Amino acid sequence: MKSLSFFFNQKTQFASYAMKINIIALFILLFHFNAYAQQYDIPFKKGEKLEYKIHYGPIAAGLASFEVKTFQDQFKFIATGKSTGVFSLFFKVKDRYESIVDKNSLHPNQFYRDVKEGGYEKIENVFFNYKLKQAETTRDTIPLPENTQDLLSIFYYLRAQDFDTLKVTDSIAVEVYLDDNFMNSQLYYLGNDTIKTKFGWVAATKWAPELETGRVFEEDNGMNLWITDDKNQIPLKIQAKILVGSIKMDLIKYSGLKEPLKFIKKN
Q1: Where do the structural domains in the chain lie, given as residue ranges?
Q2: pTM of the model as a whole
């Protein structure tokens, strides 16, 4: 029993790492669209709430939620993530992210995160000083790249883009600032799709980021993302093949949308 527990614990730690990457990918994998996309009317409002269920293979591994509030005439985005069920017995996760952004540009002014994942804990506060072009973090003062987004604001910045000019197989350069480093990759637009959700069939656009293989992901394009093909542009589903099993994340609840969610066929 002890050896079985150890084996399961190793798998859950690996799954938690992959799950974390999966959630981060949701925030960042569509960054830097300047060459293809133009910002349009902001597709969300105060009071919007989204909730996702995360599975590691057949195991219900966690929940993630996103909420839009306001703070001193700015948007305040809040995201939380937690492990659930059997997964939580072996590897407990409790994360909270907050981002305060300008209502017009959607550029972040402050970012906060408090993460607890197994034995790992981290609290971070970042202030974005655009006049001095620097990010003032808990640890240091860092040069601020142009058009910077944080891990949470990117989720909403993405949704305020217009992708109508993209053609199937177009690739977009991705460059994201994270923990004093830049992440570089390519994102591929795979065209229109229709997916089944717990609410019904929904028209979507499908995307695939280029990934680093041999560490967590099984293939270069081992992750797919589906976004509603409407004015809300809500992420509906993420699915990723990893070295041990698979991870998926599905929308299970929504409320306070700016526009009604459009269905091809309701359940």
Answers
A1: 2-259
A2: 0.80
